[in-house]
Amino acid sequence: MTADLTAIPGVFDHPHGVTPDEIDELDHVNNLHYLAWTQTAAKAHSVALGWPFARYRELGATWVVRAHAIEYLRPARLGDAVVVRTWVTEMGKIHSLRRYEIVRPADRAVLATAETRWVFVKIAGQSLARVPEELRAAFPTVAR
Prior knowledge:
Blueprint: E1 12-17, H1 31-48, H2 53-59, E2 61-72, E3 81-91, E4 95-104, E5 109-122, H3 133-138
Antiparallel strand pairs: 1-3, 2-5, 3-4, 4-5
């Protein structure tokens, strides 16, 4: 599977260089790091759209993970440059669905695909909260 790395409106690209501490006994990136990369990319996307954690704190609510799904397609190795592409495909009243492609630009290989279902919760007490309209408007949904 190869990726088209053309810029797409609503899709955020987060670059990452594979480091020695991400390599496991099989000489490739341990699967837990792919998941960490998705989380880092999601947070960076939020910041890029004007929603750092401090702004969520002002609202008194933030996103937490309900579920992750990831499919590993090819290994990443030490020194590889990768791009974690992410976009929001659904924005409901209390949830969102975010998708990801982890791509190695050198050969355009898709290394993994993933999705995360997030729920919006009040920081105090962690009960479900409605996604405010200003937040919904900041994250365009992309059908991909």
